[in-house]
Design the sequence.
């Protein structure tokens, strides 16, 4: 409050009108959500789509293009390297997004990062590795870079009006809207981008295959692309799992996925597997973490150790095997369970003009060919215009060849300098440009020999001009030039495939685990301890070791292949197999189930159920007098899930749980001392595990169910006294004949 009292005084000291109100202050304006999106969000979305995330037909995003062009203007094509920090500073003249963003872009384009099949930046220093999250790149002040030789194919014709130029963000220099690439760069390097409401994911292909396919399509639009463009080629190597149908879909629609596997070798002397190439979408750390997780979960038992041995020689993941392990079978298993086999999602979304468009390979190459035709035509027209201008000047020289003395006389006798050009124009019948050119000739060159040599060029220039005019007007000749340039690119920059093609890949088929089946006795205690004891061991010693106040609440004679369900006090079920447990002796405590099955904190196992085929049902009795009958099949899962949540109702505490193949009779005892015999056939079967069931025993206020047990034949002298035709029922108090022998549970 004190602060608010001082505000008027401060305003008076500053000469402000205390009573004046700001126009519109406090007014709430209503604006439709669609109007807000159109005026505020749409410009941002369009900026991200058009100017940031989606590549264009030259294969570059704006950030790539600005960086490469600034490096070209700095003279880094064919020169010595320059400090990366200086390069970043130069690039900020075109790309005002901060030095960190620019350097990140340059790192990915660099040879040292190994993210591209054909890098654009020749790097020196630590540029990190695309396949490792932990191998961070050095700061810009420590590294150096220049343009790779392949960038000559981007800038060779850029000064010949092949592409449009626009002002940069502060209107101090011009920059190209596209680079006139002489080969389909859009398909030779991986390009990923996430825009607003759309994304782009372009895989890389082998340069020679792309250029060959382009040439064949230019010659024959009906060419079978799959015959020359075999499959994607990734900088990380590995193996592409060949799928002709999927590749045809990608080539036709621009959408689909490519499956890539790691490359490995088995070292018999060391009994280890060396993985040297991994899928482009995977990282070393993700693979190692997943393998460790699988080993800890017991899903993979053949591995004793895994480590990263990558160094200056390249990527290397080493897996040490246990004795007797089959390396090929293990790798098949790892391919299925880890990123050692991964899918590269293809979404060939490219900006054509300013419109994003998803295209197949054929359509992309058609668009690139049209773009390149225009570049060649503009380049040819630029050269043609220069030659015509030169020819025009030489025509002026040819005119004064007739009388050099006359030209000298006109210049000498002209009194005013400004009249030299007009007098030459009048004297020889030439235009102002020709006269200006003649007037600028040095005195030493005003001899017949010089002029004749220059004018001899006229015939050659005319032939070149006729030839260039024919090129400009002939699509066939332009295509011939493009094809010859593509062939030259292949000759200079083609490389063998890094990613090999696997035509007959074997898929991992999980073999059913061979579980040794033999008779066992299973014991489960009140405190959650479990023992699996063979009959022979049990005959030798049947005295169980138990904790103080603990007792055995479940004993089953079954086989080692039986499946077990452990119900907990947190309404969950944990599934296991008897074969997952070691054989015990009666003289030990056994396995503590909450720890063995990694139960939640403070969670306790309260009941064990065994099944071999999930037939029959489970009866649950709750403290509030309700009973639920659930089919055992409700706990069966197709996947190998080990934990089921919401396994039974949490509306009332669970008193007892029984599994049975057929309906049976149960005795319920309440805290009021009443007993009720309920036949499970009178309880409707519910498919939902979390059902509350139906009311079985009517309870008075403040009373509850205390105990439930199976009805034994000699439990009651007259069992009908406690039976009822319909439930719920209150039950009966003990008859005098039954009162002498209390029920035991």
Sequence:
């Amino acid at each position: 409050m004190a602060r608010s009292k001082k505000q008027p005084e401060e305003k008076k000291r500053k000469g402000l009108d205390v009573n004046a109100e700001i126009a519109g202050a406090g007014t709430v304006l209503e604006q439709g959500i669609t109007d807000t999106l159109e005026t505020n969000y749409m410009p941002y979305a369009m900026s991200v789509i058009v100017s940031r995330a989606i590549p264009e037909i030259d294969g570059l995003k704006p950030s790539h293009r600005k960086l490469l062009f600034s490096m070209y203007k700095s003279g880094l094509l064919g020169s010595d390297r320059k400090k990366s920090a200086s390069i970043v500073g130069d690039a900020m003249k075109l790309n005002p997004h901060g030095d960190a963003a620019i350097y990140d872009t340059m790192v990915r384009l660099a040879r040292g990062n190994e993210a591209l099949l054909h890098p654009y930046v020749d790097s020196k220093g630590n540029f990190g590795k695309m396949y490792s999250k932990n191998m961070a790149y050095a700061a810009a002040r420590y590294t150096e870079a220049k343009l790779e030789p392949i960038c000559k194919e981007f800038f060779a014709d850029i000064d010949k009006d092949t592409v449009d130029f626009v002002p940069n963000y502060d209107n101090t220099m011009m920059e190209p809207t596209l680079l006139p690439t002489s080969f389909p760069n859009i398909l030779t390097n991986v390009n990923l981008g996430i825009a607003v409401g759309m994304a782009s994911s372009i895989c890389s292909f082998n340069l020679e295959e792309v250029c060959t396919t382009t040439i064949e399509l230019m010659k024959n639009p009906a060419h079978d692309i799959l015959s020359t463009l075999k499959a994607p080629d990734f900088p990380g190597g590995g193996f592409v799992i060949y799928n002709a149908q999927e590749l045809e879909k990608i080539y036709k629609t621009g959408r689909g996925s490519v499956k890539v596997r790691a490359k490995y070798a088995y070292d018999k002397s060391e009994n280890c597997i060396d993985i040297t190439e991994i899928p482009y979408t995977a990282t070393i750390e993700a693979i190692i973490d997943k393998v460790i997780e699988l080993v800890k979960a017991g899903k993979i038992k053949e591995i004793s150790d895994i480590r990263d041995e990558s160094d200056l020689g390249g990527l290397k993941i080493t897996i040490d095997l246990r004795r007797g392990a089959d390396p090929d079978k293990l790798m098949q298993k790892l391919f299925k369970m880890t990123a050692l086999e991964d899918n590269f999602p293809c979404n060939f979304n490219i900006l054509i003009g300013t419109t994003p468009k998803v295209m197949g390979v054929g359509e992309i190459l058609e668009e690139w060919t049209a773009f390149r035709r225009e570049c060649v035509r503009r380049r040819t027209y630029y050269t043609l215009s220069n030659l015509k201008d030169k020819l025009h000047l030489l025509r002026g020289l040819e005119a004064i060849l007739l009388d050099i003395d006359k030209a000298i006389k006109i210049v000498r006798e002209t009194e005013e300098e400004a009249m030299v050009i007009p007098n030459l124009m009048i004297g020889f019948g030439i235009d102002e440009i020709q006269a200006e050119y003649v007037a600028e000739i040095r005195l030493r060159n005003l001899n017949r020999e010089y002029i004749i040599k220059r004018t001899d060029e006229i015939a050659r220039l005319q032939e070149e001009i006729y030839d260039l005019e024919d090129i400009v007007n002939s699509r066939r000749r332009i295509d011939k030039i493009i094809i010859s340039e593509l062939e030259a690119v292949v000759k200079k920059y083609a490389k063998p495939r890094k990613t090999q093609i696997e035509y007959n890949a074997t898929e991992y088929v999980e073999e059913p685990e061979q579980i040794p089946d033999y008779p066992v006795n299973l014991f489960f205690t009140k405190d959650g301890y479990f023992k699996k004891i063979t009959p022979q061991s049990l005959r030798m010693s049947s005295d169980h070791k138990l904790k103080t106040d603990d007792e055995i609440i479940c004993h089953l004679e079954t086989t080692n292949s039986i499946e077990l369900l452990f119900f907990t006090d947190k309404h969950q079920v944990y599934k296991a197999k008897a074969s997952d447990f070691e054989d015990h002796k009666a003289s030990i405590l056994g396995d503590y189930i909450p720890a063995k099955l990694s139960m939640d904190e403070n969670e306790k196992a309260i009941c064990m159920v065994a099944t071999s085929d999930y037939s029959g049902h489970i009866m649950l009795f709750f403290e509030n007098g309700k009973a639920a009958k659930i089919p055992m099949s409700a706990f069966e899962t197709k996947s190998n899930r080990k934990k089921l949540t919401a396994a039974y109702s949490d509306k009332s505490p669970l008193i007892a749980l029984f599994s049975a193949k057929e309906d049976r009779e149960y005795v319920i005892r309440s805290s009021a001392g009443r007993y009720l015999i309920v036949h499970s056939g009178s309880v409707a079967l519910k498919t939902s595990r979390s059902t509350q069931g139906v009311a079985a025993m009517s309870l008075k206020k403040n009373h509850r169910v205390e105990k439930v047990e199976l009805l034994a034949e000699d439990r009651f002298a007259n069992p009908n006294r406690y039976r009822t035709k319909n439930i719920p029922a209150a039950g009966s108090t003990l008859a005098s004949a039954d009162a002498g022998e209390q029920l035991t549970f």
Summary: The radius of gyration is 43 Å. The first strand starts at residue 82 and ends at 83.
